[in-house]
Amino acid sequence: MTEVGIDAIEIRTGNLRLDLPNTFAPQKGEDPEKYTKGLGLTGSSFPDSYEDIVTMAANASHRLMERKGLEPEDIGRIDVATESAFDNSKPVSTYVAGCLEQVYEGDFHHANKGERKFACIAGTQSLDDAYNWIRAGRNRGKAAIVIATDTALYARDDPGEATQGAGAVAMLIDEDPDLVSLSVEQGYGSADETDFLKPNQQFPSVDGKRSVQVYLARMREALEDYKSVAGAIHPDDFAYGPFHTPFPGMVRKAAVLAYRNLIRDTDIADVLAEEIGEQPRRDDFADDDAFFDALTEYTDALSGTERYQDWYGATIEPTLGIAREVGNWYTGSVHVARISALRHAAANDIDLAGQRLLVGSYGSGAQAEIHTETVQENWREEIEALNVDEQLDRRYELTFSEYEEIHDAHNHEMDTEVEELTTPESEFVFDGWGRMGERK
Ligand code: CAA
Which of the four pLDDT bands, split at 50, 70 and 90, describes residue 68? Predict the structure, then answer.
């Protein structure tokens, strides 16, 4: 069976940066370490006044097409995943195609376009859709572009404000991919939840503490479901575990849960039993409360073991590098985690070809998905072609009052106009409703 997966990838960050420990924390009267150590964030990317989900998506896609030498006729499908949509009818992908048609001679009239929404997991769902479209043979030899784009803004003074971010990830999905191939097997955990909602409102209503618990519960189910279709998996089977990263502290919690789940009934559990005891099993307890107390105690002990810390340091920590600097990109976040991991391997001269990734996606509302990916021969060339550092380094550093003004400018309910803080350079810019995405 021909492999299908991600052939190439590009990102586009918002052009502004908010420093959390130095600019945000003093204004909020918080200890900077709440952000750096607790949430695990140093900065967040923010959109300048001329940027939005369309321009970031178009800029990422344009760079992807240029780098891969693609013309519109090579692309048979454009899907956008976002939870920041501004139009309830027309998909964002039509706006993106409109932008791209300004710079190519051909057009995308032949391409199937759509928009996916299921909070942050929609990026992975769009990837799955493109995979299925190619696997079904409906692609007529063409590739798909899947874009995850969000301006992940919260109302000011909402606890989520510290985890904001803005950026787009564009992925080229094709047969015989150069970066990673996707597993046929997937595991799901899905339930009707109300932890994070945006019913006809721009900024989310979120029960932050509960959302953390829902993320963990659905991820546990997805892991179980994955194992039920793919068979037992061992933590050492994977070079990296990119997970949805609303903030790195969330992944710290998810990682130990995943590890606990993966080591059950393995040689590792036997070795650790001498150090921290056996992993509790529900049948050994009279009620759920007693079982969960014992499980929490075991998980805390597990997270302190050298064995777990080594696994975390090698497999999870490298996935968090970019997230620490950009915050939450919602639909793009798990795809940013994959890029972080592959960049870490390239920088450390690790030979990844043929190795596997354990990918954990999550969307509030709520659903988690586990699938695995196999790194392809040409991965290094692909990942080294990204200009992530250049994009992050050239962001404009916001003062707190500039941050407040730009937040207001992006608030759909306010009529605030602000001067651009950066100068667009050969990029698509937001130029007013109805005239979106002109290239400057
Ligand atoms: N030094 C070190 N650590 C500190 C500290 C200090 N001085 N002060 C606080 N901390 C730690 C806390 O102990 C806590 O860590 P633990 O959770 O491990 O205990 C961490 O910093 C955060 O502190 P708080 O819990 O007090 O922070 P908060 O209540 O202000 O906000 C939050 C946390 C509720 C997650 C909030 O950021 C939020 O609402 N975020 C948006 C929702 C979200 O991202 N949820 C994640 C799951 S849902 C999802 O993933 C979908 C999505 O993308 C939104």
Answer: very high
Angle at 124 between CA 265 and CA 194, to 5 degrees: 85
38: CA distance to ligand 1 center in Å?
A: 7
Query: From CA 87, how far away is CA 176, in angstroms rounded?
Result: 35
pLDDT tens for each residue of 193-243: 999 999 999 999 999 999 999 999 999 999 999 999 999 899 999 999 999
Question: Cα(42)–Cα(325) distance, rounded to whole angstroms?
Answer: 6
Check if 241 has its Cβ closer than 6 Å to any atom of ligand 1: no
* 3-class secondary structure, 363: strand
Q: How far apart are CA 335 and CA 330, in angstroms?
A: 10
Which of 41, 158, 212 should be mutated for ligand 1, with most atoms under 8 A from CB? 212
Domain extent listing, the chain:
4-439
- Residue 101 predicted with pLDDT over 90: yes
C-beta separation of 192 from 175 below 8 A: no
- Note the pLDDT of residue 437: 65
Q: Are 375 and 239 in contact (CB under 8 A)?
A: yes
Q: How far is CA 235 from the centre of its chain?
A: 21
CA-nearest residue for atom 41, ligand 1, is: 160
Asked if the peptide bond before residue 366 counts as cis, ω within 30 degrees of 0, the response is: yes
Q: What is the rounded average pLDDT of the residues 373-401?
A: 98
Cβ–Cβ under 8 Å, residues 37 and 20: no
* Whether CATH 3.30.70.980 fits 4-439: no
ipTM rounded to 2 decimals: 0.98
The pick from 39, 151, 156, 253 for probing ligand 1's pocket by mutation, whose C-beta has the most ligand atoms within 8 angstroms, reads 39
pLDDT score recorded for residue 265:
84
Residues marked active site are found at: 83, 120, 244
- Mean pLDDT (the chain, rounded): 96
